[in-house]
């Protein structure tokens, strides 16, 4: 489980996260929703310390840290090793092959043997229908293919949680559907995932839990069923605004 308690993140006069407390259960898919600029990505990035809140605590499994304290590189690395992140713009290493992109982390961060890492990489690429491109370079793949590779790269690290920061926002609708199907399959397999997205259909079909963020605060955290079937007035307005 991931637990954030009384987390504050402020940029000058903007309160990106305001006394946020929320839990993310193991083996569930939590979808973070909210209007643009609400603090969704800041919340996600605080979990792997890409954003550093001024106060509050973070717990991942048996590990805990206080954001207000000075943290050593060892402490930061210990927390980061428990999560993997998939970004909006896949961020693959352009000078490495697809296979190398997936095996770099397990080999050099986790100390896995090259043979074991490559075997795992091929298995993951097979799951997403891309094992035939293992020896190509990122610029030889479409955006949807590159994002599937970035998901394989995250899975190869065998972390407790995978974090997705709007993983389909840079893709056209057809490619977006490909990625969302991959995420749906991962959810069915019981992976622990936290996904920031604007796709309501995905949230409705796949999310076990919804976290609704607005103005840096958690306005709802609970079962997906309740969010969509028993919405508050504000959530009704949000859902209505997402429709044409």
Describe this entry's structure for a reader:
By secondary structure, the protein is α/β, with parallel strands linked by helices. The chain folds into 2 domains: 2-82 and 159-241, P-loop containing nucleotide triphosphate hydrolases (Rossmann fold, 3-Layer(aba) Sandwich), CATH 3.40.50.300; 90-158, no CATH class. The chain is 38% helix and 25% strand. It has 9 helices and 10 strands. A 6-stranded mixed beta sheet has the order 6-7-8-3-9-10, with helices on both faces. α3 (98-108) packs across α4 and α5 packs parallel to α6. The longest helix is centred in the last third of the chain and has 16 residues, at 173-188. The radius of gyration is 18 Å and the shape is globular. The mean pLDDT is 94. Belongs to the ABC transporter superfamily. Keywords: Amino-acid transport, ATP-binding, Cell membrane, Membrane, Nucleotide-binding, Transport. Pfam families: ABC_tran (PF00005).
Compact summary:
It is found in: Cell membrane. Pfam families: ABC_tran. The chain has 9 helices and 10 strands.
Question: Key terms for this structure?
Answer:
244 residues, alpha/beta, globular, ATP binding, membrane
**Coarse morphology:** globular
Sequence of strands across the biggest β-sheet: 6-7-8-3-9-10
CATH architecture of the largest domain: 3-Layer(aba) Sandwich
What structural class do the secondary elements suggest?
Answer: alpha/beta
List the SSEs and their pairings.
Layout: E1 2-11, E2 14-24, E3 29-33, H1 40-47, E4 55-60, E5 63-66, H2 73-80, E6 83-86, H3 98-108, H4 114-127, H5 143-156, E7 161-165, H6 173-188, E8 193-196, H7 200-206, E9 209-214, E10 217-223, H8 224-229, H9 233-241
Parallel strand pairs: 3-8, 3-9, 6-7, 7-8
Antiparallel strand pairs: 1-2, 1-4, 4-5, 9-10
Helix pairs in contact: 3-4, 3-5, 4-5, 5-6
